[in-house]
Amino acid sequence: MRTAEIPDIVIGRLPIYLRELELLAHNGQEVTSSHELGERLGISSAQIRKDLSWFGPFGKQGTGYHVNYLVEQLRKIMQVDREWPVAVVGAGDLGRALARYGGFAHRGFRITCIFDNDVAKIDTYVGNLRVMSTVDLKDEISLRGIQIAMVAVPAGSAQAVTNALVEAGVKAILNYAPITLSVPPDVHVQYIDPATHLQHMTYYLR
Amino acid sequence: MRTAEIPDIVIGRLPIYLRELELLAHNGQEVTSSHELGERLGISSAQIRKDLSWFGPFGKQGTGYHVNYLVEQLRKIMQVDREWPVAVVGAGDLGRALARYGGFAHRGFRITCIFDNDVAKIDTYVGNLRVMSTVDLKDEISLRGIQIAMVAVPAGSAQAVTNALVEAGVKAILNYAPITLSVPPDVHVQYIDPATHLQHMTYYLR
How do A188-191 and A172-175 pair as beta strands? Predict the structure, then answer.
């Protein structure tokens, strides 16, 4: 089922499909169609059918998709049918907001540790989590076997933090610092930079 | 220069190029090449040349790009050679972090107002900004002529907030709520949902 040929852009749409299907399931809807999903997501129904067909025949012509079954299958495909421990680096406004964010719990993730290099923040609490020193980052992350981290430090510190995360065994980094990171080929990075998203849109404003 | 034919995926890469060029300029570098930019960004140099060629001949074979000139041109193309006022809706952890974030100032944006519907938050301050009631959202935003907003409210309120923003004249929305929004065709939406980004990466983890 998992082949190297599946384009990354297809993989990137799966979480969007899953999120919408989970919303339908939450609302008690049992069956949907590529047409309905497409309408709700602003994606063509043909695109949705094509994307899902990489992973198997999930629906029948004329009867649509069983929402709960497709949710379960997509969770397995994306490996979020489990709970991944996640580290947050940076206990500033953003890092603290991420550590307290309630939106990870039902989507496969739990923030289990948070680090900062500011002595004024170390040993303070963010929710239930004690802020640890970045001095202990490598040991703690490799000891806990954490593979996923979110980087919420200033741009000037982000590459050094990333290097430490990679040495500790992290394989997936969600980077909030406004800088492109350099990582080995087996480490995945996704970027969240609100100014970049805003600039993408101002191009179109008249 | 601005044509409807330019693919949106090209527009989406321009802010990444600009950000890296600004970093080079900040470091005092005067000239760069598509090869160097490509190395730093993990994008092929051919892709970069092709993307930039939509907008004009910015470099000469063999001499590369003048960093400051290209920065200036990209800012004009994306219309961030000015400062756009931006509204934040939601004064929770995330909304407050966004309102205080220092990374917008030099990239074309300034948060000028923040709204919440919680009476415990209304009239409190986030930095210099007084939290206003969402009751006043439409009037304030249309009065101020604001075209850009960031939505940082729970998923269940995001569509209603979006409708109010659109009625007030907002044309570009950066949505942090984990839900796909429905907007008229002339309104642009970009999405930031960390769980979606994380799920994209867990697909690849072994």
Answer: parallel
Q: Which residue has the tokens 């074309």?
A: B108
Phi and psi dihedrals of B73, rounded to 5?
-65, -45
Could you give the ipTM of this predicted complex?
0.95
What is the tens place of the pLDDT at every residue in A78-117? 999 999 999 999 999 999 999 999 999 999 999 999 999 9
Which of B133, B137, B131 minimizes the C-alpha distance to B167?
Answer: B137
Cβ of A78 and B203 within 8 Å? Answer: yes
Partner-chain residue, chosen from A79, A148, A201, that has the shortest CB–CB distance to B190: A201
Instruction: Give CA–CA dist B157/B174, Å, rounded.
Output: 15
Strand partners, A148: A86, A172
Which phi and psi (to 5°) does residue A3 adopt?
-125, 155
pTM confidence score: 0.92
* Short-list B104, B99, B101, CA closest to B88: B99
Burial of B144 (0-12, 13-18, 19+ CB in 10 A): middle
For the sheet with B148-151, list strands across it.
Answer: B125-126, B129-133, B109-116, B84-89, B148-151, B172-175, B188-191
Tokens of A54: 């990489």
Residue of A54, A183, A197 for testing the chain B interface, max B β-carbons within 10 Å = A197
